[in-house]
Amino acid sequence: xxxxxxxxxxxxxxxxxxxxxxxxxxxxxxxxxxxxxxxxxxxxxxxxxxxxxxxxxxxxxxxxxxxxxxxxxxxxxxxxxxxxxxxxxxxxxxxxxxxxxxxxxxxxxxxxxxxxxxxxxxxxxxxxxxxxxxxxxxxxxxxxxxxxxxxxxxxxxxxxxxxxxxxxxxxxxxxxxxxxxxxxxxxxxxxxxxxxxxxxxxxxxxxxxxxxxxxxxxxxxxxxxxxxxxxxxxxxxxxxxxxx
Length: 244
What we know:
alpha+beta, 16% strand
């Protein structure tokens, strides 16, 4: 009799935990999306949801064992377990998608002479996780060996105009688009939570002035690892620029 009562209680707890896990995460990221709380604080809601989901899995497993022994209803426990497992599986897939990339957040096509921001600013702790420029360059070179400068057969002014057009289509907030200087800066928003990443493009004319040597840099404003987002952004943008 006591075991049956515990089975019912744990089943209800599993259902509550299972539903609470994604709700806590959604509340956190939504508050952060609209800057009601900080971005990292909002992201911590995802982690809190994961802990709640783990609690749901543990209580659900116990509830199912007790329900089998006492012939009680397993519906609440099964629903809670299913929701918790879906949430944990989703987080696992996101982590796997970012696996294998270096834990850095400042990505560029030119390690020797990265494009420098003039309107936007690098975060004060931009070396977080790497400590020194030398370490950053070493980790970056090993993690993204194929990310290089590109040459496009269009003059600098046209490159900047095209960059401005592509960035507008992507919904970036453009800070600078200086065709004469070959300088472009913008801010991109990442994922539902709207993490901010600052982007700079530098275009230098070739000797004949008909083509441009282009370098980009994309830097996350918060966090240590960007899960590969900045490198993907640079490569995608350069591909679009070349095809434009």
